[in-house]
Amino acid sequence: YKELRLILGDQLNAGHSWYQTKQSDVLYVIAELKQEQSYVKHHVQKIQAFFLAMAQFADALSQAGHQVLYLTLDDTQDFQDLPSLLTHLLKHYQCQYFSYLRPDEYRLAEQLFNFASRFSGQSRCVETEHFFLNFNELSDYFQADKRHRLEVFYRKMRKRFNYLMAGDEPEGGQWNYDQDNRHKLKPKDIEQLPEPLVFANDVAAINQRLQKYNIAHFGEQSDQLLWPVNRRQAKELLEHFCVRCLPKFGQFQDAMTCQGQDMMSDRQWSLYHARLSFALNAKILSPQQVVDTAVDYYRGQPTLISLAQIEGFIRQILGWREFVRGIYWANMPNYAEQNNLSADEQLPTWFWTGKTKMNCLHHAIQQSLQYAYAHHIQRLMITGNFCLLAGIHPDQVDAWYLGIYIDAIEWVEMPNTRGMSQFADGGIVASKAYAASGNYVDKMSDYCKSCAYKVKEKTTDDACPLNSLYWHFMTRHRDKFGTNPRQAMVYRNWDKQSESQQAAILAKADRLLLQLDKL
Ligand code: FAD
């Protein structure tokens, strides 16, 4: 072969221009690598999903007439890392050219850049042709250390890519319908929740390989994987989303429930969310394809799907997803070191088991262990909020998020976790800390009703721990947040409380902080 082209596990873009011509002297390589299984401990379903999606992509490419080498862990076990495997393959196949698709993760980008610069033949790094913005354009929108705001970026993106626009103005006259998107689920809404579309992909052979090579993992494991692993399944899930979920997507985007588990199905874990993040992040679907399909449905059924619903969905993909990528690349590698609030507590052990008496955390974690999935508000306002209030070290928080979620790849995980949720970047992503007491959880969910702790209490033995931890957090960081107009009201409420009440709340939180493992 004249040229070796490397495809990483999250680069399964069948529409890439590479595949438009068939060349018998080009060898495509897709490999299961131990190095990718060990930089963090992963949920088993995440490993299964990547391996199966890679294998099916390799099959599809070779059926389309390309030369493809798919290497399993059996084939790559003797190679210490990706560069050593590539050195061997390039020599073995006597390739003069080495090409690779631009990695989205800093770690891999560095590794391949260094490898390519040492390679004696010619090497090329090629765009993945996946995102709305090309890599080279990111610096037009994002600068290192600068506080960027989603809303500003999002409006530019709406205009530039002409989504939901009426000339230069936003369709409907408003850019953002977020206020319409904060409904709690009532019992009758829960009865109407759509049953999630799940798949039954056979992963028995992958499970055997994981065992054979002692790959460490966690989370619920079976021989069937429910996540979509190829284009056909991903498109089916996209259609399902547009028909069943999009009509209420925005309305219940922030809602959480522990009801809706019945004999036939389990509907409370996915609600009206798309669950397309794995297919998107592995590049099985392109963001443009997802947004275009959703807009087509909206145009076809304007009475069923309101502007607020489609706008809310587009904001996530055209806005947030591209935004966090820009933040990541503008700030790496320093971003990974940020710890603006000097958080240094240990992650409680129950994050790995779900065994806590706090019902909200129990549900969010147990669900994550079961499905490798939690929706945005569970990630931000349940697990993320707890870590923020308790002051867990951001390295530990990052490692947990990066391991547990089906869609967790560092470029999107880190700005969301370290930035948005933990405020460890000092406000580059978020305009305020997303800190909340039990009151917020009670407002947006039905978790508190069946909780061992009392959400209205602050200092009693069975008081919701989030309440005192919240005030502890807000007071210990008053120097940082006291001048933020978005949080002024919070401090006014604190100052209104008597000194003895304040002291009791802080003492309660101090006691909790000494025994986080026991909550
Ligand atoms: P939906 O709610 O249906 O949204 C549709 C799509 O919008 C998603 O598939 C996703 O591609 C995109 N999207 C929505 N919100 C965001 C966001 N904040 N950032 C980037 N894209 C977004 N998303 C990941 O893809 N990988 C991660 O590792 C990840 N880690 C997160 C960690 C924390 C602490 C938080 C608060 C959020 C994280 N998110 C992450 C963002 C978001 O929670 C997930 O994208 C979403 O829950 C995926 O489920 P879904 O496909 O059902 O999304």
Rg from C-alpha positions? 24 Å
Low-confidence stretches: none
**How many distinct folded domains?**
3
> How many helices?
22
Output the strand order for the largest sheet: 4-2-1-5-6
Helix content: 40-55%
Overall pLDDT:
95
SS strand fraction:
5-15%
Alpha-beta content class:
alpha/beta
Would you tell me which CATH topology of the largest domain applies? Answer: Serine Threonine Protein Phosphatase 5, Tetratricopeptide repeat
Total strand count, please? 11
CATH architecture name of the largest domain: Alpha Horseshoe
Main sheet attributes: strand count, strand direction, barrel closure: 5 strands, parallel
Distance between the termini: 59 Å
Could you say which small molecules are bound to this protein?
flavin-adenine dinucleotide
Tell me the name of the CATH class of the largest domain: Mainly Alpha
Overall shape: it is globular
Descriptors:
11 strands, Rossmann-like_a/b/a_fold, Rossmann fold, DNA Cyclobutane Dipyrimidine Photolyase, subunit A, domain 3, 519 residues, Serine Threonine Protein Phosphatase 5, Tetratricopeptide repeat, binds flavin-adenine dinucleotide, alpha/beta
